[in-house]
Amino acid sequence: MRKNIAAGNWKMNLDLDAGKILASEVINMTADEVSNDAEVILIPPFVHITSVKQLAGSAKNVFVGAQNCSDKASGAFTGEISVEMLKSAGVDYIVVGHSERREIYGEDDALLASKTKAVLEGGLKPIFCCGEKLESREAEQHFAVNKEQIEKGLFGLSKEEILKVVIAYEPVWAIGTGVTASSDQAQEMHAYIRGLIAEQYDQETADSISILYGGSVKPDNAQELFAQPDVDGGLVGGASLKSRDFVDIIKSF
Ligand code: PEP
What's the pTM value of the predicted model, to 2 decimals? Predict the structure, then answer.
């Protein structure tokens, strides 16, 4: 059975003290107020990971993620961070292919397939992001764009491997813009993505994979989005920087 997941991507925000305060607040409020079995993933900048992991300790259902990784194992790659390093710092999940990595840093499908493979070979779980830009949606190319990203990024994986992947559908036009996909738009794309996985692998595999929605998820829209049958939670940017908002989102399952 697939899991409900609320993942908070802090992006390049907060110094260490502010990050520790945010993580402590979310962990404490989650323990006190959230009674369901949703997984919470805190995804701070690399340099805060060890501290956030210490704070998370053995907190029930709270995991730590990284925003990116290298596809290389080790060596002369200045500025890069390997899966093994992240694993040794206590990371469970690694985001691969966020639209900001695709757009600003030019990460292409081949590199993202390689990173996804590296994460899995390191024993961690990728949160693989896909999503179309506004012009693609307006040209009604949004299904084709997501299909290509998923085929190129994920369909080289075995069934055992893809079962460990979390997919995040993040329409680029909804990220950080305050514009959210409607719950119908999210459901339509999530069902489409699940259908692609069923065609490539099988229905049981497709039904076991969590597909998160990302793009201006807030406390006032999370419940409606998460109520959709194929929306298994959210990858949350801006609202994950406020403990009250993020915990309210976690409580929306
Ligand atoms: C994101 O960073 O993945 C994201 C969805 O951001 P926001 O929630 O701010 O739109």
Answer: 0.97
